[in-house]
Amino acid sequence: MRIIQNIITDYEKLIKTQFSIPLVDGDIIKFMFHPWDLPHLLGLQYLVDIPELFEYRQGRLSAKKLYKGMCNRTYDIDSYEHSTYFPDLYKSRIKYFTSDTLLNIIDSCQIIKFNPRKLKNFSTRMEKLEYIFWKEIRDEHNNYGYFGIGFMATGKSTDENYPNTFFFRSDNQYVTNQKPAIAASLLTINPKKERSFRIYWSNIRKSMNQNPHYKFLKSYPALWKNGTLDPHLIQSCQNEDVKHHFKLLQLDELNKAYLPYMEPEFRWTNAEKEYLVDQLSEHAKDLLPGELKMLLNTYRQLHMH
After folding, report:
1. Which of 90, 117, 219, 258 has the lowest CB atom count within 10 Å?
2. pLDDT single digits (tens) 213-238
3. Torsions phi, psi of 292, nearest 5?
């Protein structure tokens, strides 16, 4: 008992948590967990033998009003466990639903651009999903399953996505043959406004294969180790053109890593970017966009004419 109540209590940790995930192709996935996302994430619309959930399924009860009624006990949420459809929903979704699990899946940044036409063995009711985050996780029976969090575009001017579903499957049908959506970075802002930031530099480097500087360096096989450019080999190289093109490649990668977080009118020079690339190397960590802008402002003040 109290399964839904415990989930509501745990879900409160996620409410107002914001995510921004620029992709290497230029698209950006932005979303926040709202209170009213929970009923659909849990799949409560499938418990149609519960009166208020039947109304929710029919669109006559909004998610906001349903969630509020669940929290203030206008609705007997313990009775949801007595639904004929609850056992199946519990096995496929509810039993795995925790804030830690959702954060773990998002943090893995394994994302696909979902195309329902690529599903081969079954049809889906989730044909409107745009992105699915997934991670292979071992369940309590030591079997691997695929967890997924699906997102749909709102169509509003904010151009944000919202978490639409959560599921567990014992196969990889939802992710196989789908187009990967490759993350360039991940910025998370928790309800306390604390920020965590990670740049996926290897993803950015791999996405630069059409970049002229990348192509130039590709023509020098001795600079590569295990399929990636080796900075130490470049540093010891006597060819100044190689070093020049590598530096310009780094500046272009800096653009891809940080420009998605800057204002549309933001501009910086190559000299400024060279300074920031050196600063990132010295700090040996991914600086938050705000921290990078502070360094840039300091540099600009020191070099004002």
Report:
1. 117
2. 999 999 999 999 988 999 899 999 99
3. -65, -40
